[in-house]
Amino acid sequence: MGETSRKICENPGRWIGETLESLRSKSLYRELISRERREGLFYTEKEGEMRDFSSNDYLALSEHQEVKHAASEAVLEQGSSSSASRLVTGTFESHTQLEKKIASWIGTESCLIFGSGYHVNTGVIPALVGRNDLILADRLCHASIIDGAVLSRAKLKRFAHNDLAELESLLRMEREEREDIRILVATESVFSMDGDSPDLRALSELAERFSAWLLVDEAHALGVFGEKGRGLLGEVGFDPNTTLITGTFSKALGSFGGLVCCSREFSELLINRARSFIYSTALPPASVAAADCSLNIIQNNRLGDRLLENARYFRDSLKNEGLNTGIGDSHIVPVIVGESERALRLARKLREDGFLVSAMRAPTVPEGEARLRISLNLNIRRKDCDLLVSALVNYIRDGR
Ligand SMILES: Cc1ncc(COP(=O)(O)O)c(C=O)c1O
Questions:
Q1: Catalytic residue among 56, 152, 189, 317, which?
Q2: 71 DSSP 8-state letter
Q3: Does the model's pTM come out above 0.85?
Q4: Are 332 and 308 spatial neighbours (Cβ–Cβ below 8 Å)?
Q5: Which of these, 134, 146, 122, lies nearest to 260 by C-alpha position?
Q6: E-strand stretches of 48-205
Q7: Is-contact 83 273, C-beta < 8 A?
Q8: How far is CA 38 from the centre of its chain?
């Protein structure tokens, strides 16, 4: 450790100050803002009431009476904690039942539930590949996939976003060079910041052709897309022996926790090797019960179709006004504005008008592609969409 680093360790205040100041000067400083949330509205004394164009509670199930009731009942019956890791005393009948239900929904032999979607990707990836192996991940993959890749110590290469031609050439080159390595291809079925999707059928075929395993994170698709909300991969088919589908309960399912669907063999391996599964307390009863109840509601109603119809209406309105909404066709609608400062300014103005919209900046999105990430949920009506479009268009025309 050099003298400067040693001095920083002895007295970190100045270094912390300079680091934070550098983030502030690039409009990349982040802070926590407390808000109340009731019946689909966010509220603070200073900002007043705001419509939710920002959360991931896409189907508004976290406030559904039946879901809330199921969670409360579970707490009263089983307590507020699952008390230990799944492998100690933390596997309850409710965990096993939910896993069976999800596996049959997605169409895989097995499902394992984890503490969160972040836990899933950071646990599953290092359980599958190691130091001598290779991960090929889409450039815009979520941080949990990248963190899982780093934890695995495998070589990580990123291919350009949704660029299957580049993925194919990487697969060809790597397989020619090293026949005997495990390769894992990782991507998402709906990207969280762009709301777009890869060609999953072609991706699945590519992985199969080059004997690679495929991990598709369906965090933003589950509950919304596909038959009975089972996501996008099930619509095109996949190799059940070599594909893993990951996801979360924290978005359309209105709860908390994560899931991986895969073959029985993979699942057995994960129980024995996924460290975030082994060394973390099992999902608590309230989250399990809420996810289970949401799943019943999703399977018996076409909530996703309604959401997607509204999203199409909203996106078309923005496009008609000449705004750049990217190429996606989902309930996540980016409005790409370029500079971080501009995205922050627009989000602030919209909050003043009663619309809770988030500004996304680097490193969450690529440098120079700062945006408003607008996500729709079932509490948003078309009238609200119209109001947001006209406010946004006015601010952008004013040069804000
Ligand atoms: C694609 C993707 N994967 C995983 C996660 C993590 O899920 P969780 O919030 O359950 O940790 C997120 C959440 O932001 C996500 O967008």
A1: 56
A2: H
A3: yes
A4: no
A5: 122
A6: 48-52, 110-114, 134-138, 155-159, 183-188
A7: no
A8: 23
pLDDT of residue 398: 78
User: In sequence order, which residues have a C-beta less than 8 Å from that of residue 294 and are 6 or more positions away?
Assistant: 59, 61, 64, 67, 223, 249, 252, 253, 254, 255
| CA 242 to chain CA centroid, nearest Å | 22
Active site residue 95: no
* Tens digit of each residue's pLDDT (9 = 90 or more) over 323-359: 999 999 999 999 999 999 999 999 999 999 999 999 9
Ligand 1 atom showing the smallest separation from residue 250 Cα: 10
Q: Which of 258, 260, 233, 219 minimizes the C-alpha distance to 125?
A: 260
Is residue 118 in contact with ligand 1, taking CB distance under 6 Å? Answer: yes
Q: In what order do the strands lie in the sheet with 332-338?
A: 332-338, 370-375, 358-360
Annotated catalytic residue 121: no
Q: Distance (Å, rounded) from C-alpha 285 to C-alpha 70? A: 10
For 395, phi and psi rounded to 5 degrees?
Answer: -65, -40
**DSSP assignment letter at 62:** G
Residues 6+ apart with CB under 8 A from 193: 140, 332, 334, 360, 364, 365, 371, 373
Please choose, from the candidates 279, 292, 276, the residue with its C-alpha nearest in 3D space to the C-alpha of residue 114: 276
Phi/psi of residue 246, nearest 5 degrees: -110, 160
Q: Which one, of 285, 268, 262, 331, lies nearest residue 102 by Cα? A: 262
CA of 248 to the centre of ligand 1 (A): 6
Q: Whose CA is nearest to atom 16 of ligand 1?
A: 192
Minimum CA distance residue for ligand 1 atom 10: 117
Atom of ligand 1 nearest to the CA of 192: 16
